[in-house]
Design goal:
The complex is a heterodimer. By secondary structure, chain A is mainly beta. Chain A has strands at residues 9-13, 18-23, 32-38, 45-50, 55-56, 61-64, 70-75, 84-91, 102-107. The chains are: A mainly beta, B mainly beta. The interface between A and B is medium-sized, with 22 and 28 residues.
């Protein structure tokens, strides 16, 4: 299975941008890059996904490296409600396998 | 309901007992997934259904675990002879389309069923 590598934890100040990195050096040509986040005591929540081009939605932006071996989830202005565990996942088949993710702490 | 519904939200049982956890996916979603999550870990894939059939059950840890989706909607995860190590949050997710399409992969998760085996 293709795997991803993320830092265990990151901190950010409220109202500042946050860049969450993900390495996926073994990505295949058909793998989509997905990001989910999980707030405390809730199920994971879809954030964004992409294949080759950068993507923007109301929640975040996804920047994908030209060689697709890494990507970055960008939260443009972190709020306290963005404190969560963020998962980067490669999805090329039917299964979506989560790693340990990055725990984001947002300081007021 | 509008989202994925899981029942019970909490289940406490004794070692050796049988447990059923139910998942009611979003109406019309053909794909259904079960995961389990231990404290401090990411969700661990258990099984994937496309319609009524289990397309991939490679994540089920052993033969004490079984899941069904007889009519392609509601699914039940069944655990026999529960062990203390089965204690976890069991998450269900559904998706509107089979994987591989252009909108592939957006999963909608329920809030989970917390299982505690004493």
């Amino acid at each position: 299975d293709a795997k991803t590598t993320q830092p265990n934890s990151m901190e950010s100040n409220e109202e500042e941008p946050v860049h969450l990195p993900c390495n996926h050096s073994t990505i295949s040509g058909t793998d989509y890059i997905h990001w989910y986040r999980q707030l405390p005591s809730q199920g994971p929540e879809y954030v964004i996904h992409g294949l080759t081009s950068n993507v923007n939605n109301r929640m975040a932006s996804l920047a994908i490296a030209e060689d697709r071996k890494s990507s970055t989830l960008i939260l443009h202005r972190a709020t306290l409600r963005d404190a969560a565990v963020y998962y980067c996942i490669l999805h090329g088949g039917h299964d979506m396998r989560f790693g340990a993710g990055t725990r984001l702490t947002v300081k007021p | 309901g509008a989202g994925v519904s899981q029942t019970p939200s909490n289940k406490v049982t004794e070692k050796g007992k049988y447990v059923e956890l139910r998942c009611d996916p979003i109406s019309g979603h053909t794909a259904l997934y079960w995961y389990r999550q231990s404290l401090g870990q990411g969700p661990e894939f258990l099984i994937y259904f496309q319609g009524t059939g289990a397309a991939d059950d490679s994540g089920l840890p052993n033969d004490r675990f079984f899941a069904v989706r007889p009519e392609g909607s509601v699914s039940t995860l069944k655990i026999q002879r529960t062990e203390r190590g089965d204690s976890a949050v069991y998450l269900c997710a559904s998706s509107p389309s089979p994987p591989g399409g252009p909108n592939t992969g957006e999963l909608f998760f329920g809030e989970g069923s917390r299982l505690t085996v004493l």
